[in-house]
Design goal:
single chain, mainly alpha, Rossmann fold, Arc Repressor Mutant, subunit A, 46% helix
Length: 208
């Protein structure tokens, strides 16, 4: 695929209907989905592919980062998105992050278990409608990471991180990263020193 010798293309679809059929038949590790397609668009196709058992991860592809369909695709279960001018590194990060075939040792923080209260030591119920991924991003914001650093840590495109950050600001009523960091500490979503040390150990041994 596009010069990636370790990625095998198992099917090419011309529209959303065919994409769903091929995904059901060939069970790829991850689907790279165009949002703009005939017969069935990428949002509906993403929802149907995510409804398969077991669900198949989907990364959506769009021309513009401000495409309204991106939010609908993420709501339908897409793992992330790429713009069509994305570089090779962004494409690889997005596919690796979404693929269940990627070794777990290379994964960034995932799920509410990474967002723990320093006092209770238990996974929190996420406040204000934050998703698990948004909580991950908020934890990294509170740790002082830039969007580029967060994208690298989570193996996603930087544009995906920007979308999550904007949604975090809206849900937490934060005007900037400093306010979001204060919110994270107030709600127990900021990593403790021990968590940071554990993450550093994992980063040292990660390789894919």
């Amino acid at each position: 695929m596009g010069g990636f010798t370790d990625i095998e293309v198992v099917g090419l679809a011309v529209d959303g209907v065919e994409a769903v059929a091929l995904a059901s038949e060939r069970r790829p590790d991850v689907v790279l989905m165009d949002l703009r397609m005939p017969r069935m668009d990428g949002v509906d196709a993403t929802g149907q592919i995510r409804a398969l058992e077991p669900p198949i991860p989907v990364v959506v592809l769009t021309t513009y980062a401000d495409d309204d369909s991106i939010m609908a695709a993420l709501s339908a279960g897409a793992a992330g998105y790429l713009t069509k001018d994305a570089g090779r590194d962004d494409i690889r990060r997005a596919l690796e992050a979404a693929s269940p075939a990627r070794p777990s040792s290379t994964r960034g923080p995932s799920g509410p278990a990474q967002c723990r209260s320093a006092h209770a030591g238990q996974a929190l119920t996420l406040p204000d409608g934050l998703t698990e991924r948004e909580a991950e991003v908020l934890t990294l914001i509170a740790a002082g990471l830039s969007n580029t650093e967060i994208a690298t840590r989570l193996f996603v495109a930087e544009a995906t991180v920007k979308t999550h950050v904007n949604r975090i600001f809206a849900k937490t009523a934060s005007r900037d990263r400093s306010q979001a960091a204060v919110y994270a500490h107030r709600h127990g979503l900021a990593a403790t020193d021990a968590d940071a040390a554990t993450d550093a150990d994992v980063d040292d041994i990660a390789g894919w």
